[in-house]
Design a protein that fits this description.
Elements lengths: L6 H8 L6 E4 L5 H12 L3 E6 L5 H13 L4 E5 L5 H14 L5 E4 L16 H28 L3 E8 L1 H4 L5 H21 L4 E8 L13 H11 L8 H12 L10 E4 L7
Amino acid sequence: MSASPAPGRMAEMERVEVGGVSIVTGAGRNIGAAVARALAAAGSAVAVNYRDESTRAEAEAVVAGIRASGGSAIAVMADVSDEVAVAEMVARVERELGPVTVLVNNAATSVASSRPWHEIEPSEWMEVMAVNVVGGAICARAVVPSMLANGGGSIINMSSVTALLGRTGNLHYVTSKAAQLGFTRSLARELGEQGVRVNAIVVGAIETPSEAIYGDPDEVADMLFELQSIKRRGVPRDVAQMVVHLASERSSFVTGQAITVDGGWVMH
């Protein structure tokens, strides 16, 4: 019988390497920030995207933390719904970090509303779809040439359990998250032969400061524990670790998939 690996050797075996260069959109806080840190810890140089000057400080704080831990990162501003801004972002990332090998479409216009569907104005629909759906396509189109020149890559889109469950009072947001699933599967077929994998993470209820709008944290937790099979709150790291897996060679035969990270809330 062979001896078990030493603890240090086990840690080395378990470490997931990503490497290359990653762009994480909307990465100044919450899940996006956790994803940026996790990719950096896996050896990727990370571009921490933020939308405008109001979120610059958050993005720069994420970058500072990554660099303090020995990683490589830069903060880059771009509204993902702006094709010119995205092109400029990708050009800067390629110039300063190298060819892009991983894109995480995390940026989203999150709408914590509770209104009947017929009260949502067309302009609100357009804003949400422009960022949550079209923005992902703009970013993908901007980075794919770099991925192809580098021999392949991984695109990871962030969807939501609301797309599987339906949710009243928030039709435009839920629709945008459902659209991301179709985008993921179709783009996976478009790019598979060229070595680019495309997957989605269907995100459950993740504990972040932003969810305070939904009410008392203890009451939210009690409600979720009734729904989830795993009786703890999901945290940004839970999603980030799945991103690292999908960005790494460990998932080299996985594409067009929607992987649910929700503690067993939605099962189908």
